[in-house]
TrEMBL record:
GO terms for cellular component: plasma membrane. The chain crosses the membrane at residues 108-130, 169-189, 195-217, 229-250. Keywords: Cell membrane, Membrane, Transmembrane, Transmembrane helix. It comes from Bacteroides reticulotermitis. It is found in: Cell membrane. GO terms for biological process: succinate transport. This is Uncharacterized membrane protein YjjP (DUF1212 family). PANTHER family: SUCCINATE TRANSPORTER SUBUNIT YJJP-RELATED, UPF0442 PROTEIN YJJB-RELATED. Residues 13-247 form the Threonine/serine exporter-like N-terminal domain. The keyword Transmembrane applies.
Amino acid sequence: MKTSESLLSISKFIAEYSAHLMGAGVHTSRVVRNSKRIGDAFGVDVKLSVFHKNIILTIIDPEINEACNEVVDIPSHPISFEHNSELSTLSWEALDNKMSLEELTAKFYTIINAPKIHPLFVLILVGFANASFCKLFGGDLCSMGIVFSATITGFFLKQQMQKKKINHYVTFIVSAFVASLCASTALIFDTTSEIAMATSVLYLVPGVPLINGVIDVVEGYVLTGFARLTEASLLIVSIAIGLSFTLLMVKNSLI
């Protein structure tokens, strides 16, 4: 039989687990399913109210007829599909293998504290990805090279601004401006300059928040879904503002 102390420990773990999933870019229904699955492993009923910035969690133990409430803030983590997959797998392991809370907690921290991909490697891959978008939209080799260098410059600036905890809307505006300004060097050459400038900011498009927002709305989590869609829309507006500054400076006819 569980005690009040053990019930509190379970609630604190599930609260931290669900908050980490939300912060790492998981849609709401998956967070709820995973959290309830862990609750089932410990024989408790889990109730979650998920908002954009925090989670209200209630754990009910029918054996001892007690309940425990937790309110936890959702931290801001880099989007990680690897974390999402491994933490979802962890919820199944907890249910199938009847893991103890200590084992579950140890494995949880092993997953979230695992070494991350080196920022320089991410920087190079993002540069190649954006150059590929340039080719996909009809850009030539010269434009691809310019987009690659512009993307690396803008994304490196974004990484540094995020390290300094600068407001993410300001970060997106400045990153879009710098990347598009670097890409504007394509105007000097006989190349597809419009495509180069347009694709130089595509690395900033918030695809995951947009997709998660739509999924949340469709699955009935309307409040969280619209909050995510609103934030993603504001980020897109920030990208447009940064790109507009460049166009006003170097090529007014494009506006």
